[in-house]
Amino acid sequence: MEDRSHKVLLALVMLFLFAVIVLQYVCPGTECQLLRLRALSPSAAADPYRAEDETPARFVPRFNFSAGDLLRRVDFNIKGDDLIVFLHIQKTGGTTFGRHLVRNIQLEQPCECRAGQKKCTCHRPGKRETWLFSRFSTGWSCGLHADWTELTNCVPSVVDSKKEVRLRPSR
After folding, report:
1. Active-site annotation holds for 145
2. Which residue out of 6, 100, 123, 145 is catalytically annotated?
3. Residue numbers of the domain that contains 139
């Protein structure tokens, strides 16, 4: 009988340890604690920059854009001459976002990505020209992590070199 109780106790301890390990994978760090605190206290959810111990925030958000700027709608004509130029800023999730632009957006003619290749072909519907200028669609045409100045000088020449003079849009 005592042997059986030891087995049950061992099974419970193993189950507890397994549950703790799974919890660490599902919710690492203090996120789970924060979720529980927000559920119990509605005032804590109001300010995400307030520390749990009520100390002053080390990070104070400053926005340079008005609400109108952030909510404005931009019409993009994929069948026309519009071009999206993706400026990749390092360490901001740009690689993931650039990959998302070529692989996950639902389009009439989606980008063609071949297995084993980083560069995809993103043509306009019914045309052989690209609508997206990024490292995942045109490669490193303007250099690795080209900044704003490099892109403004490089993009028009790269795009225009691929078109006949009469087909180039006015800029």
Report:
1. yes
2. 145
3. 77-167
